[in-house]
Amino acid sequence: MMSAWTMALARSCKSVARGFSRCPKMHTTNKVVGGAISIQPVSESYYAEVIDHVTPIFLRDEPLSQCFPPCTTGRRERDFRNYAEQQLRSGLCVVALDGGTVVGACLNRPLSKEQVMNYPLPPSDDEAEDPLNASVVRMIVTIHRQLNLFSTLGVDKLLEIGLVSVAPTHIGRGLAVKMVRASVELGARKGFRAAKADCTGPASARACEKAGMAPVHRLLYDEYKVKGEVVFRQTTTRGPALTVMAAKLQDSPPYVIPATPRPKI
After folding, report:
1. 247 by DSSP, 3-state: which?
2. N or C: where does the chain have the smaller number of CB atoms within 10 Å of the terminal CB?
3. pTM
4. Which residue spans within 24-73 are E strands per DSSP?
């Protein structure tokens, strides 16, 4: 999965999203065993079904969630549902439909340099109800302030590829790659000239790379420490590192130009 851990950052993105709410026509159909899967921008009529689809998959499968105890207050699910709805209202998300049923989704949003550079970092000793969210936001914002992809890619806004989810019944059909590819094409056609994704596990990094993005930064979890302590300890699903993927975009095919890799900071 991806950087769904921008839940807190998403609360500040409404003003940026307003300018990108119109969705150009885009519809791709991919023949697979069992029927035709259509991948298209998410219309408002599908918001509720998409949220119901992505929420349990995120809560169960997000790699970094295994590094912390389960949230017993319901806060994690409430925050995620709010995050998902805000992403959907950006007009930048895509859905995979099998006969009208949601079987996959990719939640995306616009991200400005101001949001990244001015967002107040959660204090390292403030874990609130759910330490997971604050811990991941702190790590990702710190990384992106150091990387400053806005300057590297010469833009003042980025398309952020967020969480990618596929129904268990449809895993193995290449839907994740197709949804990421459709997402960057949608962003390119709407005026974005760069995209990035924060991949918390190896599967999402592979999907982004197959869709044309390139790794520009890799942070080993065992090397990320706060006050001398490893924050995200080894689990069976966590994977070794957070991988930042990026691409330059253009408004005509092939739409995606992989970003030049940078050395690890």
Report:
1. strand
2. C
3. 0.85
4. 28-32, 35-41
